[in-house]
User: Which sequence fits this backbone?
């Protein structure tokens, strides 16, 4: 008698930190391009025009492009069997957590995150440092989904032991009576 094939792993959600973190970099992009368009060519000296253009390009690179690349380089993937955390652009860091190992999930929200419905999902696996999904949209929904996935992926041996112990007769005794 062969055991049934396990269900294939499916992707439940692909998440990034909330897009709100790109608000200030986007305003800087608009301000820098506006200032460059207005001042370049309007200054009396050629070196001043070059300096304005160079400063604007530098501001765009440092204050807009780097935060955008950092945001794009962070991804959380929740599947039916595990959570995959990917960080970095030049140096990629990948971390995986299996649902079958079991963990504790806590959602932490500050005032701004509560306003936008996002939050930090802290996953305590019993290790020294908890894993944190930072500023995830719909943090409460993510917590509920992770609880459901963890329940479904109980270790088969642990589930069998739990079923065996539940089926054992009650050995409770009252004094003098069985």
Assistant:
């Amino acid at each position: 008698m062969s055991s049934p094939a396990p269900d294939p792993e499916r992707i439940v959600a692909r998440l990034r930190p909330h897009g709100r973190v790109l608000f200030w970099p986007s305003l800087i992009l608009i301000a820098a391009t506006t200032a460059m368009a207005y001042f370049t060519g309007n200054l009396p000296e050629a070196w001043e025009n070059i300096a304005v253009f160079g400063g604007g390009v530098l501001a765009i690179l440092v204050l807009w492009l780097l935060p955008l690349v950092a945001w794009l380089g962070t991804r959380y993937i929740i599947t039916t069997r595990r959570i995959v955390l990917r960080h970095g652009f030049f140096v990629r860091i990948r971390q995986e957590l299996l649902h079958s190992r079991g963990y504790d999930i806590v959602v932490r929200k500050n005032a701004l995150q509560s306003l936008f419905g996002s939050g930090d999902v802290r996953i305590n696996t019993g290790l020294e440092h908890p894993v944190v999904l930072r500023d995830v949209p719909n943090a409460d929904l993510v917590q509920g989904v992770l609880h459901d996935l963890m329940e479904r992926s109980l270790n088969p041996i642990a589930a069998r032991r739990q079923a065996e112990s539940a089926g054992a007769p009650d050995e409770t005794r009252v004094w003098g009576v069985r």
